[in-house]
Amino acid sequence: MILFNQKMGISNTSYDDLLDNTCDKQPLYSYYELININYDLLASLHFREVTLMYRDGKIPMPAERLHPHNSVHSIIPSYRPYFYSLSKDDPAYVALFRLSTIGDSVLHDDNITCDKKLLGLKSIAPYVNYYKGYLLGLRSIRKHKIGNLDSLVYTMFKLKMGLMDIVYEGEKQIVVDIYECISCSGLPILNRPVCDFERGFLTAAITNIYNREVETREVECWSTGSTKCRFIIQFKD
Fold first, then answer.
1. Measured distance CA(68)–CA(191) in Å, rounded
2. What whole-number distance in Å separates Cα of residue 150 and Cα of residue 173?
3. Do the beta carbons of residue 73 and residue 27 sit within 8 Å?
4. What strands lie across the sheet with 173-179, from one edge to the other?
5. What pTM, to 2 d.p., does this model score?
């Protein structure tokens, strides 16, 4: 699993072990059982072709979203047909990632459970996840030699984070969409974005590519009812 290592303490933990006696496992594949897709054909396509298909609205979307509730069921269902076509283990991979990142912030949301606060905050998870993503961005700059937006798009695909599409590149801001985002694709509608990990990753990567300070905002998310994540990266200078 690319995004996990032994320091996180879960690399040798299986999906079955994590969910044993916690919930039934049906939600893991809920979306894939409802939508008829030729996965062999999808797997034969280049990831950039699939990104263009998403942009043109040619990838089928679920007719209904799952409903949020107070259990792990709220975070494990994913809908990433292209990554699923490449590996049938992708739903379990996504579930492990979410249990180690967004689980706390989603399951402790006031809309789902109760007003659980720590030091006046609902959850510190969004801040921690942003920092985790930022650190991964810094490491990826060196390891994957990210020097421009094109190499950033490729790296996000190789890390299984999602399919990145450059919507706009200008002097003052950059706008990117991410399809099949590992943090949110398949989540219930929570009325707020949850992709702090990706926000941190993009901030680190874009800052280093352009050698300019940036501020990154997520303005669309699967958890707000969209079929993609949209990030606006604003240059500060």
1. 11
2. 16
3. yes
4. 163-169, 173-179, 229-235, 214-220
5. 0.82
Do 201 and 223 touch, CB atoms closer than 8 A?
Answer: no
What string of H, E and C letters represents the secondary structure of the chain? CCCCCHHHCCCCCCHHHHHCCCCCCHHHHHHHHHCCCCHHHHHCCCHHHHHHHHHCCCCCCCCCCCCCCCCHHHCCCCCCHHHHHHCCCHHHHHHHHHHHCCHHHHHCCCCCCCCCCECCECCCHHHHHHHHHHHHHHHHHHHCCCCCHHHHHHHHHHCCCCEEEEEEECCCEEEEEEECCCCCCCCCCCCCCCCHHHHHHHHHHHHHHHCCCEEEEEEECHHHCCCCEEEEEEECC
78 close to 91: Cβ distance less than 8 angstroms: yes
Residue with tokens 């990554």, as numbered in its chain = 83
Radius of gyration of the chain (CA): 17
| Helix 125-143, helix 196-210: angle, nearest 10 | 40
The predicted-structure confidence for 1-39, as pLDDT tens digits, reads as follows 344 332 333 333 344 443 443 344 445 666 777 788 899
Going by C-alpha positions, the residue among 176, 182, 197, 187 that lies closest to residue 223 is 187
* CB-count burial class (<10 Å; 0-12, 13-18, 19+) for 119: exposed
Residue with tokens 């990117």: 176
> Which domains, and CATH codes, for the chain?
17-237 (3.30.1380.20)
pLDDT, one tens digit per residue, over 57-80 is 999 988 877 766 556 667 788 999
